[in-house]
Amino acid sequence: MAYTLSGLWLILSGSFLLPLGFSIYEQDGLYLLFISQMVGMALLSLLLRFIARAPTELTIREGFLTVSLSWITLSLLGSVPFMASGYIPEFTDAFFETISGFTTTGATILKDVEVLPKSLLVWRNMTQWLGGMGVIALAVAILPFLGAGGVQLFKAEVPGPIKDKISPRISETAKILWGVYLLFTVVEIILLMLGNLSFFESLCATFGTLATGGFCARNASIAAYASPYVHYVIMLFMFIAGVNFSLHYWALRGRFKPYFTNPEFHFFVWVIALAFISIMAIRFVHGESLGEDLFRSTLFQTVSIVTTTGFVTQDYEKWPLVTRLILLALMFIGGCTSSTGGGIKNVRIQVLLKFIGSEVRKIFQHHGVFPVKLGDRPVAENLVSNIIAFIVLYLLVASFGVLVMAGLGLELDTAVGAVAATLGNVGPGIGTVGAVENYSHIPAVGKWALSILMLIGRLEIFTVLVIFTRHFWRR
């Protein structure tokens, strides 16, 4: 396990090359900090690899523990530049900001993002880009020593109840997913630069978009860019990031049929369409003018929230209450399996609704057999049970989180919004952590509680909570 962690730390040390380049170019005086971070982490990694025993094959237990420790240690190490630079001196705040990035949550304690040097902002946005497709998936793709143990790591990190294997080899699957992710990153950067954004702003916006993270280089988020073209480009790539990346891979290979045959993709599109139409109609009824601005702002916010990106172009706290409740529901639903989006995931909601429909039919036809199906394929009963257990546990964790936050003195709407936004890896919530607010006012205990929720949400509950059960530690 320690040997595996050392490899991940080595990858993280190399990722500081990009902010280092910006620091040297901008002459912001932080280049020695990034060099020290790179060298220090590389030496620490090599020392750990020298001391630790090379793994043969990871067990399921070791896989869960390694993944959880990986995300925690990477967040700890990644918070050093924020503290050492003096821009986020408090450890609690620095860790909150960093784990928010790695888990692609995008919740921030920063009141003024734009005072940070560009190199530090690049690192801040890079944490979410690394966490989007997954640091473990990246390690599986490029670290050959993981071998068969990489299967356990990959399964524990990749979101969703169904793990797609594009290739029989997990390492090849990880390489393909990261390859598609990198391709979309380059394309979006180019398209945003064509919209008159600088390379720096295009890079930061792209990192936040494809990771569905939501960190931005501007205080006003995407609202800082008045260009409708920029909004539509970001909207498109938020949607792409919220979809199963294996579908994109087959499309890039010329096979578009999976888009039309995948039940979760259809459900995802319907969720967006119904939420968008409902919110736009409600805003229109409440006196807003029907036009392109209403269309764009409503669609942008709908896609941003359901994909758990968290970008904003308008303060939705000023919208009618019922529209905010719809957005809150979208925070719980989230993106698709094997996407970079958080939340419960559309396929789980779909299976739950199918299961409820099956149970209702049994009331009227006692002896009938009504299996839960996705498309024409029945869902295994053990998978249905797993999905129902996951949703119940997700809601229980959310409820406990609300109680904790309310106990710390937060108003109910803020408590619910903060928990939904962090557990679902969304970022902005409702109440005083809404679209144009931040988390700086949350008590330190609350920030640690929300940090735990971010990790639980990103690793989909079971991976983290199973470590705290007695069965996990039994040999």
How many strands appear in the DSSP assignment?
A: 2
Mean pLDDT, all residues: 89
* Overall shape: globular
Q: Oligomerization state of this entry?
A: single chain
Tell me the number of helical segments per DSSP (H or I, 4 or more residues long). Answer: 23
**What sequence of helices (H) and strands (E) makes up the elements?**
HHHHHHHHHHHHHHHHHHEEHHHHH
- Compute the separation of the termini in Å: 17 Å
- By helix and strand content, what is the structural category? mainly alpha
Major sheet: 2 strands, antiparallel
Q: What is the radius of gyration computed over CA atoms, rounded to a whole number of angstroms?
A: 22 Å
Major sheet: arrangement of strands? 1-2
Name a few traits of the molecule:
475 residues, mainly alpha, two-stranded antiparallel ribbon
Write the layout of secondary structure elements.
Layout: H1 2-14, H2 17-26, H3 31-51, H4 60-78, H5 80-85, H6 91-102, H7 118-133, H8 135-142, H9 149-157, H10 170-194, H11 199-210, H12 228-241, H13 245-252, H14 257-261, H15 263-285, H16 292-306, H17 321-333, H18 346-364, E1 373-374, E2 377-378, H19 381-407, H20 412-423, H21 444-458, H22 462-465, H23 470-473
Antiparallel strand pairs: 1-2
Helix pairs in contact: 1-3, 1-4, 2-3, 2-7, 4-6, 4-9, 6-7, 6-21, 7-11, 8-9, 8-10, 10-11, 10-12, 10-13, 11-12, 12-16, 15-16, 15-17, 16-17, 18-19, 19-20, 19-21, 20-21
